[in-house]
User: What shape does this take?
Amino acid sequence: MLVHPARTSCAIHLLSVTPATLVVHSPLMSVGRVIRDMARHSMRAYYMPIAAGAVLAASAFMPWVSVGTQRFGGVPDLAGLWVLLCAILVVVLAVLSIVTRKNSRHPLLLVGLCAFGILFLAEQLMERSAVQQGWSTAQARAIVQGGPARATAEPAVAPGAYVGLAASTVIALFGLTVVFKRSPQIHASATDDDV
Assistant: This one.
């Protein structure tokens, strides 16, 4: 019950709240609503390239090749910076697709293929340079010590390369889905319409 201040001698307002009109807003209710809205969004498929772009960005900071205790690859190298740039571009393209509700699968296909190529070629070149560096170091030590050269450790692919290749493959496959469309079904008509 609300009492008008002009009808009372003091300015006291009484507000009667019934249990049916009481509305409680909690942060958990708003988080649940945001998640529900995200799950019903018409462009929800673009959450997959956002996640794959985040994984690709994380792989840019991981080592790609390991030789013994030495690790090679990642962000200090130029290839690592390019992979990080590709990951940022993937996330930006996917977010813009969600916001504008426009399709950006062709650019995602190109960026995913570029990231895959950069990772694959950089890993191959790093393995080769690690073998050559290990061989030249072993030869230099053998010359200085006056004995035979020892065998060098073989390079191995580090987890960062596998993670990055998998993430870029997911991005490229997502972009490739634009190619696979349902082809129209052609049906032969049994009636003769030339008559």
